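Suppose a colleague, Dr. K., hands you the sequence of a protein chain of 84 amino acids and asks what its three-dimensional shape might be. Before reaching for any lab equipment, you can write down a predicted structure in token form. Begin with the sequence itself:
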Amino acid sequence: MYYIFQNGDDFGFKCDEIHEITESDVLISDEIYQRFFDEQCGGRLLRVKNINGTTFEEIFEEYVFEYTETTEDKLLRLNNRLTE
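The predicted structure, expressed as tokens, is then:
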């Protein structure tokens, strides 16, 4: 059986055959567990919306990663252009 756990904004999965399961870990179906990795392999970025949900859609939501270039990143990028 698979469980999901959350620690702040981070989350992960546990398998009862391998990991110690705690009271805060939430049992999920094999289908939800597999769908998470199928969706992730398809390029979707997912985060936990409601760890106590009962369906994939209740538990996870897709999000868009927004990268903001820092001054240091910009200087490194420009420096790399100059050395090419």
